[in-house]
Amino acid sequence: MRTEQLEYIAAVTRLGSLRRAAEELRLSQPALSETVRNLERELGVDLLERKRSGATMSTEGRELLPHIINVLDAVDRLRSAAGEQYRISRMVRVGTVNAATVPLLIPAVREFRATHPVTQVEVVGARQTDIHRALSEGGFDLGLVNHPEGDDVPAGLEGTELLCGRPVVCLRPDSPPAARTALSVTDLLEAPLIATRSGYVMHRYVHRLLDGRAPSFSYSTDGAEMGKLMMAEGLGVTVLPDFSVIDDPLVRCGMITHRPIAGDSTRVLLMLQRRRADPVPRAVQDLHDVFVARARVLS
Predict the structure, then answer these.
(1) DSSP annotation of 189
(2) Within a 10 A sphere around the Cβ of 298, how many other Cβ atoms?
(3) Cα–Cα distance measured from residue 60 to residue 63, given in angstroms and rounded to the nearest whole number
C-alpha cells in the first residue's frame, strides 16, 4: 500500500468523480482507476460505487474513510516534524447555503489561511439536502446550513450552533414597504417575492408562513447571495435570516435593509455540521475552531 493510493481515493471521494479527480491530480483516468482498483484488491473491499453520475464512497468505504484520513494526516505530521520543505497540500471542502457569508465565512477563511498557508479551502454553494449528503459521503468536510430551532441534526452528523437569528424581510430602503416597522404576510403576498428554491430551509419556512398561498409574482434562486443582489436591483423582496444581512456590504452602502415579520417568533440557527467520525483531520478541526471563535465575536 502506498500513500498516493490513499491520496487518490480521498480525492475521488471529495470530488465525486474519477474524471475530476484525475484532472486535479494530473493523471489519466485509466491510470487513476487502476490505482484505486489495486487498493481495493489489496484491502479486499470495494471502496467506491461507480455510477453514470459519478463515483461515491461505498458503505465499506465510508467506514474506512476516517482511517484513510488519519493515515494521511499522520504522514503530513511526520514530514513537518522532519523539517521537509514539501508538504502535501491538503484541501478542506466547505459546503454552504450562503448564509452569513460576509460576516462569518470570509473572515474565518482569511484567518485560517494565515496559519495554514499550504491547505486549500474550497467553498461550494449548495442546498442543505445536498450538503448533508456530501457530508455523509465524505465529499464535504464541513457544512454551513440554516437549521430551524428544535430540528434534529441528521443521523451520522454532528452540529455546532454558530448564530441564532430570526427571519426578516429584506428589501430596498426606497421601496414603500420599507417605511413600516414590520411587514405582514399580506405584504409578502402583494410584493414580488424572491424565494430560495426547494431544498433550502428558508423555502420551507416561507411556504409554511404563506400557508400555501401564492404571492403576486415570485422568482426562485439558489442561496441568499443571488436573492440579495436581485432584491438590491429592485426586482422584489426576499426572506432571509437576519444574520445573512447584518453587516452585509449591500446594507452598509444603503442598497438593502430589512424588517421583521409581524407576529412571527421563529428562530433560525446557523449550524456548522460535519460527519460524525473519529479522528477528525487536523486542518478540518482547525477550520471548525476558527468558525466557532468568529461566531462568538458576532454573537
Answers:
(1) H
(2) 15
(3) 5
In DSSP notation, 64-89 reads HHHHHHHHHHHHHHHHHHTT-S----
| CA-based R_g, the chain, Å | 22
Q: Return phi, psi of residue 228, to 5°.
A: -65, -40
Q: CB–CB of 241/270 below 8 Å?
A: yes
H/E stretch holding 110 reads helix 106-115
C-alpha cell at 142: 464541513
Q: Which of 297, 268, 293 is CA-nearest to residue 150?
A: 268
User: What does the alpha-carbon distance between residue 83 and residue 105 come to, in Å, rounded to a whole number?
Assistant: 32
Taking the C-alpha atoms of residue 222 and residue 256, their distance in angstroms, rounded to an integer, is 19
- Mean pLDDT, consecutive 10-residue stretches, the chain (299 aa), reads 80 78 79 83 84 75 82 76 54 80 84 86 87 83 87 85 92 92 92 86 88 86 84 91 85 92 91 82 89 89
Spell out a b/e string for 262-292, using b for 16 or more CB atoms within 10 Å of the CB, else e: eeeeeebbbbbbbbbbeebbbbbbbbbebbe
On the question of a cis peptide bond just before residue 279, with omega within 30 degrees of 0, the verdict is yes
Amino acid at 135: L
**Cβ neighbourhood burial of 248 (10 Å; 0-12, 13-18, 19+):** buried
pLDDT at 87: 46
From 95, 15, 5, 4, select the one nearest 54 (Cα to Cα).
15
Determine the Cα–Cα distance for residues 267 and 33; give it in Å rounded to an integer: 47
pTM value is 0.70
